Amino acid sequence: MRTTTKFRIVMWASAGFLVAAGWGVYFAAADKALPIDPNLYTLASVTQPIVWLFHRPLGLSAVTVANAATYALAGLIVEAVRKQLHHRS
């Protein structure tokens, strides 16, 4: 089965949405009395690039939508590069 570029970009956006929602659920359920491990905070920041742009708290819905858009943009770039490499071979 051949997948279309649109489908792949939708999958990238879905992954970004799920990543942000997962972190949101994790941090909402985490014990507020314990500090966040720096490695865990770094992983959350790397998987949610929107966190780097805004240094203030954002709502979960805003972060999930922004992260989905960011992942869709990354998917668009990856798919364009993949298409170029596929045409060369």
What would your notes on this structure say?
The chain is mostly helical and 89 residues long. It has helices at residues 5-29, 38-47, 50-53, 60-88. Helix content is 76%, strand content 0%.
Shape assignment: elongated
Major sheet attributes: none
Return Rg in Å: 16 Å
Average pLDDT reading: 88
Low-pLDDT windows of residues: none
What's the helix count?
4
Beta-strand percentage? under 5%
Write the layout of secondary structure elements.
Elements: H1 5-29, H2 38-47, H3 50-53, H4 60-88
Q: What's the short story on this structure?
A:
This protein has helices at 5-29, 38-47, 50-53, 60-88.
Structure characteristics:
mainly alpha, 76% helix, 4 helices, single chain, 89 residues
